[in-house]
Each structure stands twice: as structure tokens, then as C-alpha cells.
Amino acid sequence: MARPAIHNHRAPNAPKLAKIPITMHTSIRIYKTNVEKLDDDTLQKIETEFVPILRTVAGFHAYRIIDSGDHTLATISFFETEQGANESVEKSHDWVHANLAHLVDGPATKFTGQQVFSELA
């Protein structure tokens, strides 16, 4: 199957940027929490226990956490394949349920899809 092109739109005078050479698939999970903001111990637990699990998923590229500071956080994972993105949703559900259930209010809102546009500095 041919990989679709990644579209980079730039302003007419903007410097030319490199295109991402591979199609990326993304998994986004949004959690409602019972804490205003994640503490350092929780972030360290995620870094040392959960991220290594994600790294075992084929095609893993990146993992990010965005904490709104208002009882909501989002996680974003990037993979080379749709299968990897979907597998990350399963692994995150299992890990959060086993390790952070006391911090989340209900299941995450989940979204997976193919990245169709990217602009990098």
C-alpha cells in the first residue's frame, strides 16, 4: 500500500521545511482527573513504568502528556502504523486501570487516526 503524502503548508515567504518521510498514526487520550495537576511522582511513574511499555510497540516514535492544570489531561502517542496506535490504546487502558485508577474519573475519551498534516519548526 502506498503511503499518502504528508502536506506541509507554508506562508509564501516561510523557509522551506523538511517533510516527514513516513506516514504517522496518532493515538490521543483525554482523561478527566480528580487532581488539578499531575504531581512529579506520578509523572516519574509514567516515565519509568508506562513509557517503556509503549516503546515495545512496533513503530513507536513519541509520547507526550499535556496537563491543562484544570482536572484534564491528554496524552498523544505517535506510531508508524495504525496497528501500533491501536495497540497503544489497549496498553494505556490496562496500565492506567492498574496504576492510576485512583486519579482518573471514568474512562478516557480516545481518538486514533492518521496524521495528514504536520508543520515542524
What can you see in these coordinates?
The chain is α+β, with helices and mostly antiparallel strands. The chain has a domain at 37-114: Alpha-Beta Plaits, CATH 3.30.70. Helices cover 28% and strands 25% of the residues. It has a 4-stranded antiparallel beta sheet, with helices on one face.
Shape: globular
Q: Would you list the SSEs in sequence order as H and E?
A: EHEEHE
Which topology of one domain does CATH recognise? Alpha-Beta Plaits
Compute the average pLDDT: 86
Question: What is the highest CATH level, the class of one domain?
Answer: Alpha Beta
The number of helical runs is 2
Summarize the main sheet.
4 strands, antiparallel
Helix content: 25-40%
Oligomer: single chain
Strand content: 15-25%
Query: In order across it, which strands form the biggest sheet?
Result: 2-3-1-4
Poorly predicted spans: 1-11
Query: How many E-type strands?
Result: 4
User: What structural category arises from helix and sheet content?
Assistant: alpha+beta
Gross CATH architecture of one domain: 2-Layer Sandwich
Radius of gyration: 16 Å
The CA-CA distance between the termini, in Å, is 29 Å
Summarize this structure briefly.
It contains two helices and four strands. The chain is an alpha+beta fold.
How do the helices and strands line up, and which of them pair or pack?
Layout: E1 25-32, H1 40-55, E2 60-67, E3 72-79, H2 82-99, E4 109-114
Antiparallel strand pairs: 1-3, 1-4, 2-3
